[in-house]
Here is the input.
Amino acid sequence: MLLTKLWVVLLVLLFQKCDCKSRTNITLPSDLLIGTASSAYQIEGAWNVDGKGESIWDRMTHNMSFAIKDGSNGDVACDSYHKIKEDVDIIHRLGVQFYRFSVSWTRILPTGFPNRVNKAGIRYYNKLINSLLKRGITPIATIYHWDLPQSLQDLGGWANPFIQEWFENYAKVLFENFGDRIKVWVTINEPKQICSFSYSKGVHAPVIVSEGIGVYLCYHNLLKAHARVYHLYNTTYRPLQKGKIGINIETTWFEPATDSAADKSAAERMWQFECGISAHPIFSEKGDYPKLVKYIVAKRSKEEGFPRSRLPRFKPEEISFIKGTADFFGINHYATLKVRPMKLLKGVSELNDIGAHVVGGRNESWSYYFQRYFKSVPWGFTKLLKNIKYRYQNPDVYIFESGVPDEGALNDQHRIKYFKENLAAVVSSIRDDRVNVRAFTVWSLMDNFEWQFGYTYVTSFKPTFD
Ligand SMILES: *[C@@H]1O[C@H](CO)[C@@H](O)[C@H](O)[C@H]1NC(C)=O
Ligand SMILES: *[C@@H]1O[C@H](CO)[C@@H](O)[C@H](O)[C@H]1NC(C)=O
Ligand SMILES: *[C@@H]1O[C@H](CO)[C@@H](O)[C@H](O)[C@H]1NC(C)=O
Ligand SMILES: *[C@@H]1O[C@H](CO)[C@@H](O)[C@H](O)[C@H]1NC(C)=O
Here is the structure.
């Protein structure tokens, strides 16, 4: 009910302000849930308050502030640790049905390990969850949204296979303490950003540059860690708590620049290296990494003189252990990009297998972007959803992030246009393509700390190309 009201208000605003060609109303399917989201490091602040331990983002922003565009950090951020009431009030005023937040690992386990559970941390999330429930807002929790304990990073972080056990132990504490009220869990937010931005390009904490090597160790351990937590929930907690659990993958839509075979295969490579590498092992019928990724990395590794593929191989029992470990496909969608094979660019690491983002690479297996990143491309969203349906056995899809940044101006016409067009695209995917989209999430609840961009406007996704 509340939701209908919200949308009427929003649509009236759209009609008043938006100079859009189409003025038709969007009727949202009654079973499509609408929500908003945040993540712990971006909003909580209180980085060392009440016993919280140091995370990799605390370490990076403090010790390498030069790597953050404005030298800022999340020490205070939106001060959500002290502002539960204010946060829940604004969520309630928005009229949304759910709120997806993430739990800070070091607020719960200051050492990273379950030997010491921080009671103040448990109290904070209990209070948040209870306040949401009291207002009729469904809480959805992300277990890991990038703020690894520094203590675990010192031991290799996601490159260390023991992370599987550490992550499972941490998740167990969350299920035990919050599982009676949290009915939707996201294990991990955005494997690509965790593995590629952090262990390949080194633009995110812990700033490790290990192109073509660290990135694959990370994926390998992360997928197994995710699967362990899924099985833990499925076997031990689901029978009592009766919730759902899945993973969130950032999915850009890659459109071939032209109809040429070369551009089409560039788009396919891009999909498989950027999304398939984490989606295929979980959601495809066969499991395992995509064939194309295995083939390209093995071939290039051999040419480069490595004794075996830089992409580790899953054992058959690991393939079945990971396959099917998600009750839904969580997607974060922001953009559509056109791709074509990349020309040789100077100054690029030899081991970058696709030349993702704005870095270049050599030869055949490379693609690159040549459009501004954030742009409303509703047909791209439609194609993406159809692609997920057909590639991955028609899963339930939870759109867990979508949105567009602004310059801090309140007159955000471009954002109104973006949401209007993209919601219409989602609705048409549900109606016409019968994609099982169950939820749409506006990112983010409020302005917050935007990782390497600090508190600045994210403009630098603008690709450079020759
Ligand atoms: C949109 O929906 C509202 C509320 O139901 C209605 O008052 C309005 O006339 C509709 N506008 C159009 C263009 O259909
Ligand atoms: C802090 O960063 C510098 C490089 O700027 C590095 O040499 C040093 O080891 C770092 N200290 C810690 C505690 O990570
Ligand atoms: C989850 O548990 C159910 C009930 O035991 C089982 O049938 C199902 O196969 C499990 N799912 C996975 C992916 O293992
Ligand atoms: C690809 O690499 C091969 C040899 O490694 C070279 O002969 C060819 O010119 C390269 N193609 C492009 C487009 O750079």
